Amino acid sequence: MSVTESVYDYKYENGRRYHAYSEGKYPVPNDEVEKDRLDLQHHAFRLTLDGALYRAPIPKDVQHVLDVGTGTGIWAIEFADEHPSAQVIGTDLSPIQPTEVPPNCSFLIDDFENDWVFRQPFDYIHTRAMVAAMKDWPRFLEQAYNNLRPGGYLELQELTFPPICTDPTVTSEISPLLRWSDYFTEAAAKINIDAQSPLKVGPFLREAGFVNIHAKIYKWPVGRWAKGDKMKLLGKFVYEDLMDWLPSSALGLFTRVLKWTHEEVELFLATVRKEMREEKHRHFYANA
């Protein structure tokens, strides 16, 4: 859809590019490195679901679909390809989606924290990996509920903090990765983002009016230590995702909120990368 030139007036900081629309709300870059990471993460989610894009029991001929926080638009595009009956809208703060898309897919530059003004209710609303962006889950869920037709579905595919070590004796005192998670959680809290919020949305869903609420937790190994071809491949995806997510997550938050210098962030992240490369006996995983 048409956008004003101002949304392309990207902001540059610490060698990374950030969104201009609702400037500063989302502390993660929108540059090519981050776009590649998001597309890689998309493949990790699809592999987790054995190739599927979703778990909700929606009909194959679903009509109206909304993808909130669409990022590169890869999920919305693939969903539109697989469901030609659907009109799919993807929303995001950044116009980083491709211009050549299926005829039943479109993108809207929008801030999901503002009032929603869609023309018709949706049959299905999808979000993914919003943990670093969501400041007000109750308001978001209320708006999602009010924009779903009766019998429609909302699906939240999320990641949780902190990562978990298979060795319970490993703490943040000795693990740079767990220390990074602590710093991220601390910084996010100071801008009203709860990094552990995906584990707490059940009551919010019920308060918003949702029924038949189902949750399923998947383990994402970080690295190829897990058994089985599928889990080894997933672990490879997750490891590469994490390596790119470290600077994406830290450069904005740690410098703006924790007041670290760029150099301090890079030196610290080097210790995390070193641990992930060398500490073979420490096996980490994330919950999705």
Automatic annotation (TrEMBL):
Keywords annotated in UniProt: Methyltransferase, Transferase
GO terms, biological process: methylation
InterPro entries linked: SAM-dependent_MTases_sf
GO MF entry, a single one: methyltransferase activity
Residue ranges of coiled coil: none
Ranges annotated as spanning the membrane: none
Matches recorded under SUPFAM superfamilies: S-adenosyl-L-methionine-dependent methyltransferases
Protein's UniProt keywords contain Protein transport: no
Listed Pfam families: Methyltransf_23
CDD domains in the record: AdoMet_MTases
Protein name from the UniProt record: S-adenosyl-L-methionine-dependent methyltransferase
Organism: Lojkania enalia
Taxon lineage: Eukaryota, Fungi, Dikarya, Ascomycota, Pezizomycotina
